Amino acid sequence: MESPSVLCVRLSLKQRYFLLLCFAVGAVVVYRFTRSRSEVRRSWHVVGLRANSSQFTLETKPFRILGGSIHYFRVPRAYWLDRLQKMKACGLNTVTTYVPWNLHEPERGVFNFEDQLDLEAYLRLAASLGLWVILRPGPYICAEWDLGGLPSWLLRDKNMRLRTTYPGFTAAVNSFFNQLIKKVVPHQYSRGGPVIAFQVENEYGSYARDKDYMHFIKEALLSRGITELLLTSDNKEGLKLGGVKGALQTINFQKLNPDDIKHLDAIQPQKPKMVMEYWSGWFDLWGNLHHVYAAEDMVPVVTEILKQDMSINLYMFHGGTNFGFMNGAFAVGLPAPKPMVTSYDYDAPLSEAGDYTTKYHLLRNLFSSYHTQPLPEPPSLLEKSAHQPVVIHRHLSLWDTLHFTDKPLKSERPVNMENLPVNNKNGQSYGYTLYETIIASGGALNSRDSIRDRALVFVDRHFVGVLDYKIQELALPDGKGKRTLSLLVENCGRVNYGKTLDEQRKGLVGDIELNQQVLRDFIIHSLDMKPGFVNRLVNSAHWMSVHQRPSFPGFFQAKLYLSSSPKDTFIKLPGWNKGVVFINGKNLGRYWSIGPQQTLYVPGPWLHRGDNQVIVFEEQEADGKIQFTVTPDYGMTVDVE
Ligand code: GLA
Q: Is 153 helix (H, G, I), strand (E, B) or coil?
């Protein structure tokens, strides 16, 4: 019998070509009929987002990105769908989100992509609504987020150089990207998913410490299977140094300045122009006013951007909340950093609680003219409840909770929080740290600028005063014998933008002095107030009834009873001074009477029918009750400059 190969040799050249053609056509037919629509995208003839001329193309057709940012980590998971549907109904076609490394890798090598951090579920949800996604995986994200999203354990290395090719940093990025990128690769456009582009780093042009760094990040994405369009994003000044070969440069601004666009065009001619961050509002700092950006000022700018054929991403479309201790701080041009408030309402088109604003309605009207089909109806509003005030029924002194913390550290010298031997040697990331030592006299306590960021000072647990960046000296009262000096130091949030990222260690970062003698021999308690700690508190035997005088700082407990299914609400705390609110173990964030923010958002899905446990940690002054309102109060307003 002749073998097939011999048969083949006997065929003429024409016959061979014919056979080959039949085979190829057959293969395509089989492929088309056996693959799902999304799988077909993997074939060679379907192309994703491209930037080959002055207009984007998607699937080879002209495409304009009408984008908006919603950060999945700032919105309760139960509301992801609601917010994305509202985005779709506003006429946007693309959702953009950062990825917060600090939440996904809370301890080195320990990863979390579950529940509130289930990025894949978020991508699937966007896809199910027909929204495209631009992913901004950082690793640095800025975003008014603690340390711009970098995990604080990186700062355990005293030589750390964040956002550079310092080996200690690149190794950590590689290890995180090994986990993150394999999760997002299957959600790329070419694999049938919604992700049409990836941003390389974030505004690196404003940092630009290391000329090799952007290349490293780009390769870190490419080598792990990222195949979609790459972008960078910078403000006008940053454009010069922020780009990397092979990535499209985009620009960030709030007011449209024709020179900025010319500048972008000059450095990158014949490419699509995109405003990656069109700031729809602005963030707020404690002690300042609440920023607003009038819809009547904003909408004409968006109109003009679209008229000029540019693509746009509204930063933010919906800001959400800096729950927990996740807020960043701002320091550029200030004598000392100022922390960001808990709300990230941002004066965005959708409010913190997902309500429509004037901006939303005007934008919907504008975007509708860029669609051939009518836009879907906006989903109906979620109801809110203004509950009756709840009464504090017991309180617990902070001093009676110290045995619930990790084992305290005895140390001759002060140790900054990141270098404490807690959390499996990852240090303490957020919250408060208590430093105690024995003193034998009163006198002048000088912080030598070692306090990050703010300390309540006590002698024998009696409050003496506050030390911070401004107040660096306190008079300690005289007294007999040995007494305990306590400094409860709060990390108010790490700076997220600017050149001081490497200096964001918190707690006591150096020596402090009493009468010009440095203090030694500390006992250090880490009070990061994680859910385990808050849950342990509830079983303490030291809770006291309301009839006894409360001691500060302390925990104050109340019950919110709900007889029907829970709705959103806002907490307000007139008569309280400064602290943190926990509901059913969830950290809602910080409040501070100095404002501007006066209410804390309580998402309905975090409550349940029956008794809900409310615990307030208050530093200095409490009222006997907690109040609720349906109307947020972000404080006195000022127009964004
Ligand atoms: C920059 C950053 C964002 C955010 C905005 C201000 O553009 O890229 O992450 O910090 O500023 O809200």
A: helix
